[in-house]
Amino acid sequence: MRNRITATVVAAAASVALLGGSGQALAADTAPAAPSQLTVDAYKTWLKRAPGGGPTLKAFSRLPAPKQRAFVGYLQNARVFKAFGITQTGDIPSKAKTKTVRYNRDVTFTSTTVAASRTAKSTKTVSLSVTATERIFDIPVTSATTTLSYETGKDGMITGKGRKSGHKGANFNAAFTVKAGPTTFGPEANMLDAVTNWTATPRFKSAGTKPIKKLQVLTGLGDHGTATTFRTVGS
What are the average pLDDT values for consecutive 10-residue runs of the chain, which has 235 residues? Predict the structure, then answer.
């Protein structure tokens, strides 16, 4: 009996050694790995759970199957996200002014700037907003907005008073998590910048392994003009 028990223990120990040394190691080795790429079905499931994802899901579901596959391919293509960038200039005041850059026949990047001013005696309050948006088959997938307001004096010069800035974003690209840092000021001679740094972190191997860093700058040129840029600054 003692010999049979000893043989059983030895056999079990040998089996554990062959499997990696412990039962815990075996459990870790056989745990499911993270998905290597985003699929059409996984994207639809993600949109169902994403806050505000309903309109994107509806528009995406209307696309024919080949375009759905191409759409998801663009989402996880780091080259496309790195290329997402655009510059624009405008006047103050002005209605919403949009500039479009075409990446290819399926993907476009737009920049929409709104500039308003309100006069009060010898001063003006200038309010600016710029939104950069990536669209695939004309469906918005990622947008980044920076806002800026300030006061100018009788001569149109920036007084340094009433400065406010902020940002907001919307991301329906399941291949990346997009977050922004605080919006900061960058004052220059009769110019004021609102600067927002955005970081897109890949969620799938197919989207890359390094975060993509974007810079958005909204510049107020006194009481007469604006300049904006949205571009990649690192990855």
Answer: 37 33 31 73 98 98 98 98 98 94 98 95 95 98 98 93 97 98 92 98 96 98 96 93
Sign of CA dihedral 34, 39, 44, 50: positive
Note the pTM of the prediction, 2 decimals: 0.84
Contact 76, 35 (CB under 8 A): no
Alpha helices in the chain (DSSP H): 2-19, 23-29, 40-49, 54-62, 65-75, 78-83
CA distance 152 to 94: 17
Q: What is the token pair recorded at 90?
A: 């405008």
Integer Cα distance of 228 and 235 in angstroms: 21
- Give me the residues paired with residue 231 across strands: 215
